Amino acid sequence: MPKKLPGSKDIPPAGVTWKPATEYRTGDWRSKRPIRDEEKCTRCLTCWIFCPDAAISWDGQDIHFDLNYCKGCGICAEECPVNCIEMEDE
Amino acid sequence: MTQETPQWRPRLKDIANQEELFTSGQRLCAGCPAGSMARMAMHALPRPKNTIVSQATGCLEVASTIYPYTAWRVPWMHSLFENAPANASGIEAAYKARKRQGLEDDIPDLLVFSGDGSGFDIGVQAASGAIERRHNFLYIIYDNHAYQNTGIQRSGATPKYAWTTTSEVGKKEPGKLLWKKPIALVYAAHDPAYCATASVYHWRDFMKKVRKGMEVEGPAVIHVLSPCHRNWRYPEEQGMQMAKLAVETCFHPLWEYEGETRKYILSAPSRVFALKPEKKKPVEEWLELQGRFRHLFRPKRRDDLIADFQRLTDEDWAFIQKLSNMG
Amino acid sequence: MSNMPAKQILMGINGDEAVAYAAKHALVDVCAAYPITPQTIIVEKFAEFVANGEVETEFVRVESEHSALSACLGASAAGARTFTASAANGIELMHEVIFLTSSIRQPVVMAVADRSPSGPINIHGDQTVSLAQRDTGWIMMYCENSQEAYDSTLQAFRIGEHPDVQLPVMTMLDGFVLTHTLENVYLLDETDAHKFVGRREPMMITIDGKQVPLKLDPKTPITIGPLQLFDYYMESKLQHSEAMEKARPVISQINNEWAELTGRKYGDGYLQPFKVNDADAVIVTSGSSAGTARFVTRQLRAQGKKVGLLKLRTFRPFPDKKLAKLLADVPVVGIFERTHTTGSLGGPLFNEIRSALYDHDPRPIILGYYGGLGGRDVTPEHFKSIYKELLKIKDTGKAPRYPIKYITVRK
User: What is the ipTM of this complex?
Assistant: First the structure.
């Protein structure tokens, strides 16, 4: 516990959480990152549905990898029907 | 076989615009399909902004709510290991009683998650009671075949011959000595409003089932297969493929039970193997990809054990085909 | 009952029925319970209210006590006023949920029909099981008679749901002696009872600078029951402890309000002393034994013997300071408890009372008596013999070498 954490007067009672998990960056865990061939990609969103970490988003036009959260598991690359995602060492 | 009623079909381009109710920043192992499973379920909710989740202790629970963080954007409650359906009974009762008295406007939908530890073993009593009482909730049991959260101990969901830390592989014992509990049949025998099996790979089938289970009036149960690379010992990107093969070998057939008609129906991804049995893969193809079954192949190939596994798989498969009038 | 401010109805009912009426009068939203002797009459009576449409309660007939409290917990977290009742093995099965209910601050009210723990199975009363819940973080109140069972159960909702408190409350009634014995009980008129208990308001908490209800509500989604590790767990425990401290004045305040409404008052809400002031010897006890002990105390006083009784009504929060104030100057104190603890120097009452007096000089000689286990009758003769022993110690100044003994046990 490096810095001073909030005390009993600061935290909500009953153990209710007070921070969204999105403040915790699981991207630090990654040893490989997904690289997508944008030409080959058909935007079928198979990667989006399978991503365990909701680290792929769809803006209505294109998909985006959020490396703040991507743990580098490679499920997207494995499941891509046109093999447009490669996992590259960090 | 009954005619399937017209139903919601998830289109990825539509649902990908929806808010993630199970967010990033959860700390499941990299490649854990339970994360995908939870996301799929949340994206299939008929009333996403009017749903309460009750969750049993397990990987999904601890990894998603490590204090002070939460990955849930719906009202969410974890109580204990064995009581999530009982907890949900109370939530429903509260809203029912208070709506009747004009203290609430609506009764939210209820979704309960548990792993196989709770769903197959320690929580069966509470689930059985809640189904008998006809509470209106969907109970999703995600089955990864062992108590993974406590360090891979065998559960009632662990298949025969699988290695776990409490069904060790040694000179005398080749992993677990017993077959797995047919839990979905156990819950289906309660005559709930709806019951189904699913696989995390077959996302469309699973999401349709979640939607059905949430929409139907009364208790619903979905037993969804969700592999675990820490126990099963496959490369972490292979989780979906493991679930796929479990269906293709008919180790984990996909089916539905409809309370209204009291009929069992094989789901499309499995029905194909009933219609064309030659397409069904030998279970060996699934086993040999997993380190937890390595002792069936190395140092010496154990044809006897592999054959036994195949026999048990075939018996279960024949049984569900018969139940669904496909046998 | 001469000075009775509110209109009340006199009924001949047993302790269990008195509790059922209290739950009915408390406008309970959800009741989840499982049958177990000697609690069962509570839920049977309540089932009658449900069947007759006399309550708006959702009555969840669960498949175990574990699920009974789990359902209450879920219901309470969803904003409902909840009630359950159990006994002995049922309480033991719930134990896991009992801890959780208080730590996530859900003001469930639970009537405990005190019955001996199994081994061998015994359906009759003692307080071993309820006192074994002493570290679970609940408010705990012991009732002397059926009237008190009604009164305390209604008060329990007010105490537990008080905005400063938000903790669950157990009210104990001795198995069979209270649960199954017909007594005269005054019940409030329902309208007055409703006015007294009011409606439950959820606790407001601050998350990210915003005030939200501690409630499973889709309008304000919160996460209840996360994994809390070494970095925050102790802070949450401190909060729990502070809530219990805040319950202290509330228990007295509600006791006073109740006295104004009904004319019935239970000491300061914690302790009910009877002839303690100038006493040479005092017996401390809880529950129905207090009635028997009071009868004996009155008899002995009439004979000129300076004896007194101190009834312990509220066990959690433990009234250590109040107790010390009342007992510090008493020469000899005997603690009679219907509990059994092995391998320790006396039972929970003995331990805590003796500890509360440790800082006082002089302090009384304190003896502990185990009795009434497994429903064995506790008669006036037993209290006479205890007083006799205590007075002898006072006269001789000689305390026994070992302060704990069993009464009525055969060797």
Answer: 0.96
